[in-house]
Amino acid sequence: LNRRLAEFGTTVFAEMSALALRTGAINLGQGFPDTDGPEEVREAAVRALRDGRGNQYPPGPGVPELRTAVAAHQQRRYGLSHDPDTEVLVTAGATEAIAAALLALVEPGDEVIALEPYYDSYAACIAMAGGTRVPVTLRPREGRFRLDLDELRDAVTDRTRLLLINTPHNPTGTVLTREELASIAELAVERDLLVVTDEVYEHLVFDDAEHVPLATFPGMRDRTVTISSAGKTYSFTGWKVGWITAAPPLVTAVRSAKQYLTYVSAGPFQYAVAEALALPESYFTDLRTDMRAKRDVLASGLEEAGLTVYRPSGTYFITADIRPLGETDGIAFCRALPERAGVVAIPTAVFYDHQDMGAPFVRFAFCKKRPVLEEAARRLKNAR
Ligand code: PMP
Ligand code: GLN
After folding, report:
1. ipTM
2. Would you place residue 333 in the very low, low, confident or very high pLDDT band (cuts 50, 70, 90)?
3. Which is nearest to 323 in space by CA: 360, 294, 356?
């Protein structure tokens, strides 16, 4: 492994899912639903396969049906208009979108500011692009992991190229508020920064939280690459269909990198996701209602087990503090948890540069059937 990637061995998700398989523990580690997405969307994929749509290389930017559906979704939900031909690019999941965006937009030596804890691929992709990551830590305060806007402002230097934002935020479940986003936007405009914003959990927001895309703020449309994916919204994490929306020069740049990463993404699934994006509003409402109920089952279970829970406003993850159990090291705790309680979780320390700040936090996924969550909650009482 070269020097750029030396610090990135096996991803924590692979390690923890392997641990779950080996021990037979309930896997609340890697975030994937245990129920597949809608039947009609699966049928749409089968139809595309049978009809020979997408079985040979689809167009590089993605099939027109999907690009049109993505543009229509952004317009309908957020009032953002995008030309499907020049302002939408289909990628192999959000993961490739992140990689291609960073490879295309970061010069070696550029600083990239990311919210810490950060999704693990951010650090690796910044490194592959030759950039330097500058973490700005979300700190738990009054029940929520919060962004300190002064700290963000202070992190910007003459070398800062872009802000890498993620809302709703994995792993903390924080949904940045309209006010916080407005401040981020003002900073980006003032310091002339590009913004890459990972909004894969855009439809998974609960209670009073609202997802507002950064691209909707003044001055942002032309400096923002917005990333999303069918994995989370439609519960097809194995399909790996993602996309970006951005202004033409940014799409062209990201596409240049994408061409040499995968060239194209799986054809038949693109047609199916195009149909998924046109599902009626009730699909999204039901998804949110279902996930919120699951969140509450797991959150209560974790509280009863004695952990301090940061009840998330978005995503399908709960971050909890293990210190009330007399534990301080989340990595050791997660390694022992399958034996002790038959549950697998993710130590969020692996998403931090400031390891000490992340040490006592553990992430649990709640995108699982209710009986699974109830059983996990029962078992977690043995976590002490
Ligand atoms: N970004 C975030 C914040 C995620 O949580 C995930 C999925 N774990 C991804 C990107 C990757 O999405 P995809 O599976 O579409 O590549
Ligand atoms: N995004 C999922 C998570 O955060 C899984 C990602 C992965 O396996 N790379 O758990």
Report:
1. 0.97
2. very high
3. 360
